[in-house]
Amino acid sequence: MSTSRLDGLVGSVGRAVSSTDQAERPRGPGCPCGGLWPATQPIKLARMRVLTNHHVLAVPDLERSRRWYERVLGCRADDVDPGNWVFMHRDAVVFLLGRCPDAIAVPELGDHQYFAYLVVDDVDAFHARAVDGIADAGGEVLGAPQDRPWGMREFALRTVDGHRLMVATNIGRPNRAWPGPDGSIG
Known about the structure:
By secondary structure, this protein is of the alpha+beta class. It has two domains: 49 residues, no CATH class; 117 residues, 2,3-Dihydroxybiphenyl 1,2-Dioxygenase, domain 1 (Roll). Helix content is 17%, strand content 26%. The chain contains three helices and nine strands; from the N terminus they run αβαββββαββββ. Strands 5, 6, 7, 8 and 9 form a five-stranded mixed β-sheet that branches. Helix 2 packs antiparallel against helix 3. The longest helix is centred in the last third of the chain and has 15 residues.
């Protein structure tokens, strides 16, 4: 990205960000970076961007999980390491499923079973697909879509392995945190 393009970005404090802006945060042994960045090394915020987001999940039975993501969410599979890893693609999201038969059983994780909040264009259509797919692939639809005060219509799913995720659509209320019906944020 060029400096002129960086100069036009707006930082989280509401001012323009330039390529020379630096974070003023503690670094060294007590830093979350584990001391990888010495206190004297600047962190350039303008060059750090999250480009995408994937979900990495340990599953005990790779084929059973693969079927669930195909039938319930309509994902397509990419067998990157047959028998060990399968990447399940659906539009802008990728679920990276790794075979871990000896991992802690997901139901033992309590509320930490939740791993994703998918914002979709039509939550009711995704709900109908999930109801049909779960009858064949296992798992559970944890209720019908409901309108929430934060401007989203959402429902929860439990995968065949016990992981839980939310599926939602922005219902047109202004909310800076979620994409609107046209996909824009803010």
